Amino acid sequence: MDNLKTYSYEEAFAASLKYFGGDELAARVWVNKYAMKDSFGNIFEKSPEDMHRRIAGEIARIERKYANPLSEEDIFGLLDHFRYIVPAGSPMTGIGNSHQVASLSNCFVIGLDGDADSYGAIMRIDEEQVQLMKRRGGVGHDLSHIRPKGSPVNNSALTSTGLVPFMERYSNSTREVAQDGRRGALMLSVSIKHPDSEAFIDAKMTEGKVTGANVSVKLDDEFMQAAIDNRPYVQQFPVTGDAPKVKKEISAKALWEKIVHNAWKSAEPGVLFWDTILRESIPDCYADLGFRTVSTNPCGEIPLCPYDSCRLISINLYSYVEHPFTPDAHFDMDKFKQHAQLAQRLMDDIVDLEMEKIELIMEKIKADPQSEEVKGAEYHLWEKIKHKSSLGRRTGVGITAEGDMLAAMGLRYGTQEATDFSVEVHKTLALNAYASSVQMAKERGAFEIFDAKREEHNPFILRLKDADPQLYDDMVKYGRRNIACLTIAPTGTTSLMTQT
Question: Rounded to an integer, what is the distance from CA 275 to the centroid of its chain?
């Protein structure tokens, strides 16, 4: 496509309106958020067809580096009309777009190693979250390392202010970062074991406080059991280790009821069943190599270790229902299996495209006129991200239109029959995404630190083994291309464009 050709807003809107069959909302969302444009407002694409050609061309370029490449037309066929495979916002906007220096990742988590409870560490995290947000990423980080209110400190304050003022600082920073019609997104989490966790849980109940962040509390099994049994629960700081400086006994049941009440009243805090997350997480089999999960991205669907990032893609489930809304409706499971494998493959190609984007970001920082002192922190941040992304090659294949799929099949949401069918679909997705990652390990090489021995007791891996012993044997033999493959992300504007 000739980059010099530009379109007026009206031209692009008219062409998109036709593309979406008269759906005004879908057309406006696409032109406003996803059509390729530069900072002067020039629009270079007149309908999503142009965008899908741009994306297909770039993915095909990566495919040609490897064995058995998919053709540009094959890739375009999967993307066309948002029918089957739908890249999320960041890859959709960024792939093949030379007008913005932006990342293709949707999700990041940051966090400093060692004792990060100092103003220096707090400000560094503040800077890093802003640097990521300006490149279009959503960011999460954990606050469990910050000492509780009233702790002694060696500065003029003499005692620590606790978590809440820092929640506000991070929230305000997020609100300051613009992202072309969006604003930054932030997740703050804290362990329920932290003595300030109740203040954290209450922080957003005050109107106008912490409006730039989502907040989630990390609940452990011990806390949940104490809440069920109405037993006291001990909070401490530091939250891990057996030499706490602060200890405090609370009623788990009362705090649990407060979480439920606040979530009902203000939709927050979210809850993260942290022990379950760590048990199920495959990357945590590599915790000692830097893959210890510490927080989640802003919408909470993907727990990550510091400086790991993830790109997202969704499969439009509605499109696999043949003869929808008729007595003959059925789900084309064979086509779905094939596309689940292809979605995983496109996701891996997008990891390569992201590596190129990170190189461009780093080159841009190097060329910036600022002094080394100013830009050094930003450059180092992207070095850390590049290292983690290339080490694990994490992907986030998910779905959208599950409700429409069930309705089109004549199934009522929430019934046992509908639930069983959904489980079957998701199991099929998992087995085929992982099979595809194993196949790519054969063709392209496994992710750098793959070690079957480390993963042999992971509950998720054991379920894969149980469902498909051959897949497991192949995985042990060839490895996997990606440290983790799946996540079910919320698809807001995406589902406006799939019209589901």
Answer: 20
